[in-house]
Amino acid sequence: MAKWVGQCPECQAWGSIAEVGAARTALVAGPVTAAARPIGEIDVEAARSRPTGLAELDRVLGGGLVPGAVVLLAGEPGVGKSTLLLAAAAQAARDGAPTLYVTGEESAAQVRLRAERTGDLDPHLWLAAETDLEAVLAHIDAVRPGLLIVDSVQTMATAGVDGSAGGVTQIRAVTAALAGIAKERSIATVLVGHVTKDGSIAGPRLLEHLVDVVLYFEGDRHSTLRMVRAVKNRYGPADEVGCFALTSEGIVGIPDPSGLFLSRRPDPVAGTCVTVTVEGRRPMLAEVQALVAGSKLQNPRRAVSGLDAGRVAMVLAVVERRGQVQLSSSDVYTATVGGIRVTEPATDLALALAVNSAADDQALPTDVVALGELGLSGELRPVPDLGRRLAEAARLGFRRAIVPTGSESAAGVELFLARDLGQALVAVENLGRPRTVRRVDFSVVAP
Questions:
Q1: pLDDT at 220
Q2: How many whole angstroms separate alpha carbon 261 and alpha carbon 276?
Q3: Which CATH number characterizes residue 370's domain?
Q4: How many helices (H) and strands (E) are present in the chain, helices listed first?
């Protein structure tokens, strides 16, 4: 860094140091790998995606795996990453593409036993248990695979780089080497990555920049539901979600997961409200539950499951202050059904109505959904993709919806429009009355 010096540190003379600029080296043009061509003459067939045979995984990838693409799949231990990739490897092998599965965390016999249990054995599926990068490259030369799976990148190490396996230097070197091989030989490559306590990918942030696709595999250990979420995708949408069910026989895709997050009851129950959340581009119905019980504690308990705790606290404050619902002396428990995690603001209204229903012990009708973002002053704000949300609700038999004022009507759904939380509570009181119109606007009701 440049620094002013008035006195020479050697001879102690003042004003004797002069600034001299470093000599610049002229840049010389070097050899090119391929001549530049008009963009219309570029062959795109080599970049076409190949379906994996798992429809939900193809949905997230944007159609399938692209030859030469490097995919990073991250998730917590035991969530099912190896099971999913073993199923994808076996399907690729059945399609005739040589597939190399390299495991650094299990023995080859352990992977073979899992493959037998899930029915993922195929003669074109090659298995190797290695933790040395040079040995992995030798296997690639021998098998010449079309699909390479490395489970996991944190267990691999190379002798040419200092540090132990899993360190920042080793992870960077191994990933860069595998990405270079994938591009050079047009091998679709999937790397399994570990995650830290806060859920982010372990290792340097550069790891996500070296790969083409970053996927997160999410799921609750106490639920069979699993979700693959794309956060980076150079070949397709980066906001897509795929749903799977993890069973003892393997992993299967769920093309229509909405019904998993609803409690089917013959009679309405107080403290529940159905909303429509959007995961990626897929609308899914979710049920929000609340329980309000009297508390003898000085600080009543607030328990949250499947929702954002900070947003729940904000909604409870708005319900108490703007909705005149007394919660200061009560324990409040909130949760979702089916293990889904709902964090988007569009579900605020459903949570508020569920809490109000639990406090009053008055159930909402079973054919009603609620959508809307709740502000601190109690106002309701529009939500994106309302048309698709209401269409999904109508498909599953819901015929009425409480939505913010200004929302567009949807076929098969009667709208109850509300400007704020107070008008939404008025709408709830009118839900049991006979329906004579298809669009009821409560914005004219005095606050």
A1: 77
A2: 10
A3: 3.30.230.10
A4: 10, 19
Q: In this predicted structure, what is the pLDDT of residue 447?
A: 36
**Is 312 in the same domain as 401?**
yes
Q: How many CB atoms lie within 10 A of CB 276?
A: 27
Rg (CA), the chain: 29
Q: How many CA atoms lie within 13 A of 157 on its CB side?
A: 11
Domain match, 327 and 220 both: no
What's the pLDDT at 438?
Answer: 40
Quote the CA–CA distance of 345 and 438 in Å, as a whole number. 26
- Residue 20, domain member (yes or no): no
Judge whether 265 lies within some domain.
yes
Retrieve residue 424's tokens: 């939404």
Residues 398 and 414 in one domain: yes
Low-confidence ranges of the chain (pLDDT < 70): 1-4, 21-23, 198-199, 204, 432-447
Answer yes or no: are the C-beta atoms of 151 and 82 closer than 8 Å: yes
Predicted pLDDT at 445 = 40
Q: What is the β-pairing status of strands 250-253 and 272-279?
A: unpaired
> CB–CB of 416/442 below 8 Å?
yes
Q: Where are the alpha helices (DSSP H) in 69-132?
A: 81-94, 108-118
pTM of the model: 0.78
**Quick check: 95 and 75 in contact, CB under 8 A?**
no
Rounded to 10°, the helix 309-322/421-430 angle is 80
Predicted pLDDT of residue 263: 80
The number of distinct structural domains making up the chain is 2
Cα 188 from Cα 76, distance rounded (Å): 23
Structural domain boundaries enclosing 351:
259-441
Last residue of some domain: 255, 275, 297? 255
pLDDT at position 370? 96
In tens, the pLDDT along 363-409 reads: 999 899 999 999 999 999 999 999 999 999 999 899 999 999 988 77
